[in-house]
Design a protein that fits this description.
Layout: H1 2-20, H2 25-37, E1 43-47, E2 52-57, E3 65-70, E4 77-79, E5 82-83, H3 93-100, E6 106-109, H4 133-150, E7 154-160, H5 162-171, E8 177-183, H6 189-196, H7 211-214, E9 219-224, H8 232-240, E10 248-253, H9 262-266
Parallel strand pairs: 3-6, 3-7, 7-8, 8-9, 9-10
Antiparallel strand pairs: 1-2, 2-6, 4-5
Length: about 270
C-alpha cells in the first residue's frame, strides 16, 4: 500500500510539474499574434452561427483563388484520459505553414474554441464532436464570408492533423474547392480510434464516409514516416473507401513525425511557390 501511495504521489507531482510548463492561453495567443505580425497581418474573428473562429487573412487576392490553412486539434488533451480546459494549440503548426506560404491570397482558420472563450465552448467540441455537423457548417459559413469579402472564385483547403479531417469534410460539401491538401491528416476517424484503442468519435462525421463526394477533387496527402499519432494506416484505410482513387496522391516525409519536420518540408515544396 505504501508503494502504491508513493507511486500515485509521484504521478501527481509529475503531472503538476508538466502543467506548470504548459504555456498559458494568453501566451499561446501571443504566439499566434507573433506569427501574424511577421506577415504584416493581424488576427481576426470570423463570426458564424455556432462559433467564432480565429483567423489570419491576407487581403492580396488578385488571383481570386485562396489557400486556406485549417489548424489541428490543438491542446485537446492533457493526458490520454484527461481533457484540456482550453484546446488552443501550443504549437500552431498550420499557422506556421501558412507563414511559409509565398502566395499572396491565403488564410489561416483555427478550430472552434481555440483562442476563443464563449458559452458555446463545450468540451465535446475538442473531443467526441470535434468533426460534428455544426463544426463543419461553421467552416462553410466562414468560407462563404471570405468568398464574398475578397471575391474568391476557388479554394485550396490545407488541413493539418484533425484540420485535415475538417478540410476533407468541407471539400465534400462545396463545389468551389479546386484542391485538398492534408498534412498528417486524420482522414478515417474510425480507423484512427481503432488503431489507438480509444472511444470512437460518435458525435463526429468521418471523412472516409464522404469518399464518393471527394473522388473528383485533386488531393495531396502528406504522411510522416515517423508519425505515431496518425500513421500511414489511416490514409491507407481512407484510400480504400474510394472506387476511383486516381486523383489521390500521397507523399511520405521520411524525417517527419506528427508535429515535427513539416516546416522544413513545406518551405521547399512546389505547391508553396508563387
Amino acid at each position: 500500500m505504501k508503494y502504491k501511495t508513493a507511486s500515485l504521489l509521484s504521478f501527481v507531482l509529475l503531472l503538476v510539474q508538466g502543467c506548470r510548463n504548459i504555456p498559458t492561453p494568453i501566451e499561446r495567443y501571443q504566439t499566434l499574434n507573433t506569427l501574424a505580425f511577421e506577415q504584416n497581418l493581424s488576427i481576426k474573428t470570423l463570426h458564424t452561427a455556432n462559433f467564432d473562429l480565429t483567423s489570419i487573412v491576407s487581403d492580396r487576392c488578385e488571383a481570386r483563388s485562396m489557400r486556406v490553412y485549417i489548424e489541428g486539434d490543438g491542446f485537446a488533451w492533457v493526458t490520454r484520459s484527461m481533457l484540456s480546459a482550453d484546446p488552443t494549440p501550443i504549437n500552431p503548426l498550420a499557422a506556421k505553414l501558412m507563414r511559409l506560404d509565398l502566395g499572396g491570397c491565403k488564410a489561416y482558420i483555427a478550430r472552434p474554441c481555440q483562442y476563443q472563450q464563449s458559452k458555446e465552448c463545450k468540451e465535446k467540441y475538442w473531443s467526441s464532436a470535434r468533426f460534428s455537423d455544426e463544426v463543419i457548417h461553421s467552416y462553410d459559413e466562414a468560407l462563404d464570408a471570405l468568398k464574398k469579402q475578397y471575391a474568391i472564385s476557388s479554394f485550396t483547403l490545407i488541413g493539418y492533423s484533425g484540420g485535415g479531417a475538417v478540410a476533407a469534410l468541407e471539400a465534400s460539401r462545396r463545389d468551389d474547392v479546386k484542391m485538398l491538401i492534408t498534412i498528417a491528416g486524420n482522414l478515417d476517424t474510425l480507423k484512427w480510434t481503432s488503431l489507438h484503442d480509444i472511444t470512437p468519435l460518435t458525435d463526429s462525421l468521418n471523412p472516409a464516409d464522404a469518399s464518393n463526394k471527394l473522388e473528383n477533387i485533386p488531393q495531396i496527402h502528406f504522411i510522416g514516416k515517423e508519425d505515431r499519432v496518425v500513421p500511414k494506416e489511416v490514409f491507407d484505410s481512407y484510400r480504400e473507401h474510394f472506387k476511383d482513387a486516381t486523383k489521390l496522391k500521397s507523399v511520405e516525409c521520411s524525417e517527419c513525425s506528427h508535429g515535427q519536420g513539416w516546416e522544413n518540408l513545406w518551405s521547399s515544396l512546389h505547391v508553396n511557390k508563387k
